[in-house]
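Might you be able to check the backbone structure tokens below? Thank you kindly.
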Amino acid sequence: MSTVLSPEPGTRPEQSLADQLRGRSLPAGAGRVVLGVALAAAVLAYVAGASPVQAALLAWVVTLALPVWSAAVEGRRKAVDRLVTVLVSSAFVLALVPLASILWTVISKGAPVLSAEFFTYSMRNVVGEGGGIYHALIGTLLITGAATVISVPIGLLTAIYLVEYGAGGRLARWIRFLVDVMTGIPSIVAGLFAYALFVLFFGEGVRMGIGGSVALSVLMVPVVVRSCEEMLKLVPNELREASFALGVPKWRTITKVVLPTSLAGIVTGVTLAIARVIGETAPLLIIAGMTDSVNFNLTDGRMATLPVFAYTSIRNPGVPPEFALERAWGAALVLLIIVMLLNLAARLVSYFFSPKGER
């Protein structure tokens, strides 16, 4: 009994049976050709006077020629696949536009300001040109460092309880719920909490760096808890059982087996939590304040930070304003570099401290 292959829907009747079995396809470089034509059309449109948005839309419309071409040659199924590929790629490029715009703006406006004076001078007695971010850089490092010292022990011990002792109990469920709620707290609420707390001890109008550390720790703790909890869950139970079989107590199993095994993930989570809060402005503006002088004492007086310095420079630039605006862009660029270095450090720690089989 012979089987007759009917033509595939959308194919021409004159197509040979061999073509139907083999399948016709576009040339190997069809995608690159269409992309090149789209870019060329965008450049020509921009040179002719079109706006960047109009040129980008024209390029996107030209890329739609690829699924149309595919429908004419390859059939409906492959044409739909190429259409979805174009749409997904377009969404990816569209998501990169704000990031590229921010990077270009901050680097182009902030890089010319960077100099040795900019990093080693404060704004004390500086009006107009000159000065730097030394006082804000010191304040950022001290406040963020103190927030880390407060947050990491609390977050890590909470995660250890949830994974090793809570075991799905009612208290553990409530703690997870509260941690999830804290994750969504607006940063200004954390600043108001720290201000209200310190007002109870020091009175109205209190401003000090340690208050900023407490506010940042409120934002850091839930991030540390969640990241450390997930890393502790990844430790195989076989390691714990092997330790218990040797008669090792639970606390020693945690400190000698569980924590070293998950060290890379824990350090990565802590580093990302630091990068998350180091750029906060609202809570520090409320409780830490702003000053033009260097202050190394977290418990005595106002303390400047990079995000607050950039904000106040934009908000009150003075006369002439261009010098303050340049310093604000320079502070933003330095803050961006710090966050980038923290993320890079997290990746390096994750690579070098992870088990060799996972590298």
In short: The radius of gyration is 29 Å. The first helix runs from residue 17 to 22.
